User: Fold this.
Amino acid sequence: MTGTDPPPSGPAWVQILLTTVGLLGATGGVAAVVTIALRRRRFRTDAAELLTDTALTIVGPLRGRVTELELETAEFRGRALAAEREISELRVHHRDLTALLRRWRAAIMASDATIGTIRDHVRAVRSVRPDEYRSRSTPDG
Assistant:
């Protein structure tokens, strides 16, 4: 054997069979690659659809709950503002009543205090604000 002689290749039908199998295998390989590429797109599409459906399933109830919470928040803010106004009014009344009690105490503790002068102090307050102090001074109202 010299370096130029072709190697023995066996019968011709074996070469034809191997060539045919190789071609079929190659086309099968190409087909497999194409199938994988097409399935990959389909997998991506399916995954996107699944994620979208899941997101919509979750987002719908969350939107409803957020709306409910926003309404509750608005209601509680209104209540808080009303409470702040009431507290402010009560502070003013507390300050007024404290000043009134201090004046009455001073009138009672004065060295020249008499029942008549104390009654005059009470009448003076009632004439200035009869409805406010009368409703608070009686147990019924």
